[in-house]
Amino acid sequence: MSEYKLKLGKTGSAVVDTYKKVEQKFIDRFLEEDETSESGYTLKCGKTAEIVVGVYKKIENSVVGTYKKVEDGFVNAFLEKVDSDSETQQ
Questions:
Q1: Beta-carbon contacts of residue 32 (< 8 Å; ≥ 6 apart)
Q2: How confident is the model at residue 88 (pLDDT cuts 50, 70, 90)?
Q3: DSSP codes, the chain
Q4: pLDDT tens, 27-83?
Q5: Distance between CA atoms of residues 56 and 38, nearest Å
Q6: What are the Cα distances from residue 18, in Å, to 11, 15, 22?
Q7: Of 20, 41, 59, 80, which one has the greatest count of Cβ atoms within 10 A?
Q8: Which pLDDT value is given to residue 2?
Q9: Integer Cα distance of 13 and 53 in angstroms
Q10: Has residue 90 got a pLDDT over 60?
Q11: 59-83 per-residue burial string, b: 16 or more CB within 10 A, e: under 16
Q12: Number of other CB atoms surrounding residue 4 within 10 Å
């Protein structure tokens, strides 16, 4: 089977060069080198990322807190504590 290579021409070369510039700007803005990562990069945690993470944690804590209240309400309404000694006697 034959191997093929894309013929870029002037337009194709311009498109590829533009793509490479955009890709490099993205890397410079949002990524930092990381030898332990498979890709060699990790996401930078700038001010915006810190805000997003903070908001996410607040939402997560709210959801978990609400779940715990529902769970406690269910336990209080439908379950009662049983001593392990009295359970084995029944």
A1: 41, 42, 43, 44
A2: low
A3: --------HHHHHHHHHHHHHHHHHHHHHHEEE-TTSSSSEEE---HHHHHHHHHHHHHHHHHHHHHHHHHHHHHHHH-----HHHHHH-
A4: 888 888 889 888 888 888 777 777 887 888 899 999 999 999 999 999 899 988 888
A5: 26
A6: 11, 5, 6
A7: 41
A8: 65
A9: 40
A10: no
A11: eeeeeeeeeeeeeeeeeeeeeeeee
A12: 6
Q: Which residue has the tokens 């769970």?
A: 71
The pLDDT of residue 89 is: 56
pLDDT of residue 4: 64
76, two tokens: 């209080």
Tell me the two tokens of residue 6.
Answer: 């894309």
